[in-house]
UniProtKB/TrEMBL annotation:
UniProt xrefs under InterPro entries: Glyco_trans_8 (IPR002495), GNT1/Glycosyltrans_8 (IPR050587), Nucleotide-diphossugar_trans (IPR029044)
Pfam families, A to Z: Glyco_transf_8
EC number(s) recorded for this UniProt protein: 2.4.1.186
Protein name in the entry: glycogenin glucosyltransferase
Main location: cytoplasm
UniProt keyword annotations, A-Z: Cytoplasm, Glycogen biosynthesis, Glycoprotein, Manganese, Metal-binding, Transferase
Single GO MF annotation: glycogenin glucosyltransferase activity
Compartments, record wording: Cytoplasm
GO biological process per UniProt: glycogen biosynthetic process
Job description of the protein: Self-glucosylating initiator of glycogen synthesis. It catalyzes the formation of a short alpha (1,4)-glucosyl chain covalently attached via a glucose 1-O-tyrosyl linkage to internal tyrosine residues and these chains act as primers for the elongation reaction catalyzed by glycogen synthase.
Species: Dermatophagoides farinae (American house dust mite)
């Protein structure tokens, strides 16, 4: 086993599928590092079985909630409470060095050189560059560091209520001590910044190695046309569309076949691959479909996709 590892975290099925795409992208660019994923009980059993096809090690961990939920409410981002679970990554002391990556990232060029950097190396945050963004960072596992982080969280909380605020408090000299710990933006390029400084993207965009789908817009919430290789609908800038389509291309090529037989329901039903050729294939009877719906078994990639339901509704309305 490699003494170095890429580590990610999934707290539900959505992010677990994002993690599968991340793992596929890491393998596609040729890394031989160990791929490790931390998961919580929010990840279903059937998804856990599929994760084993993409990661060398899967470890179940407890959910660590933010010690200061009022801050999260003020930020209108209560979902960030679970991000403190990320701290478990410091307990992976079987590795000498790790690179943590959020499961909503995508690697498009090899980044193994990051293991040459010291703890804590990260990219400046676009919102406040004196802080680092905790979506991608190089660190050294340590039980001492883990315990100190937990103690700080309990004592001082986090200024943003999540892991990024806490980690910036703990590694408070990141912005001033050693410029070598400042990673280039190409290792954690967020969608939000590509259109705020478009000339820079046009100048340096070809060097980008990691795309980070930061914020509420996640690729798995978009509808994708596999036959055309394009998103069905998208409101946003061209760069964001291109990045999300890159994610979907990786998803269709390497992950879709592993999950298409699973009965994914709830929010996962938002993830639609619209393939006209597949839609034209013979489908089960209406009675069979009704039984499947009653049992919560929706064909979210086919007959029960939102687009197909909308088509049927339009046909009924217009008497077709």
């Amino acid at each position: 086993m490699s003494s170095e590892a890429f580590v990610t975290l999934a707290t539900n099925d959505n992010y677990a599928i994002g993690a599968m795409v991340l793992a596929s992208s890491l393998r596609q660019v040729g890394t031989q590092k160990h791929l490790f994923i931390l998961i919580t009980n929010g990840v279903s059993d059937n998804i856990r079985e599929v994760l084993a096809k993409f990661f060398d090690t899967i470890q179940l961990v407890d959910l660590l909630h933010s010690p200061d939920p009022k801050i999260l409410q003020a930020l209108k981002r209560p979902e960030l409470a679970v991000t403190l679970t990320k701290l478990h990554c410091w307990k992976l002391t079987q590795f000498t060095k790790c690179v943590f990556m959020d499961s909503d990232t995508l690697v498009i060029k090899n980044i193994d050189e990051l293991f040459e950097r010291d703890e804590l190396s990260a990219v400046p945050d676009v919102g406040w560059p004196d802080c680092f963004n905790s979506g991608v960072f190089v660190y050294q596992p340590s039980d001492v560091t883990f315990n100190q982080l937990i103690e700080m969280a309990a004592r001082d909380g986090s200024f943003d209520g999540g892991d990024q605020g806490l980690l910036n408090q703990y590694f408070s000299d990141w912005s001033t001590k050693d410029i070598g710990r400042h990673l280039s933006f190409i290792y954690n390029m967020t969608l939000a910044s590509t259109y705020s400084y478009l000339p820079a993207y046009k100048r340096f965009g070809q060097n980008v190695k990691v795309i980070h789908f930061l914020g509420a817009l996640k690729p798995w919430y978009c509808s994708y046309n596999a036959s055309m290789g394009k998103l069905n609908t998208f409101i946003g800038n061209d760069q964001a569309r291109d990045f999300i389509e890159k994610w979907w291309q990786m998803m269709v090529a390497n992950v879709h076949s592993a999950i298409e037989q699973l009965n994914l329901v709830g929010s996962m039903s938002n993830m639609v691959i619209d393939n006209p050729a597949a839609i034209q294939q013979p489908s089960s009877s209406n009675e069979d479909r009704y039984q499947a719906w009653q049992q919560g078994q929706m064909d979210y990639l086919g007959a029960d996709s939102f687009e197909n339901i909308q088509k049927r509704l339009d046909q009924s309305i217009h008497g077709q």
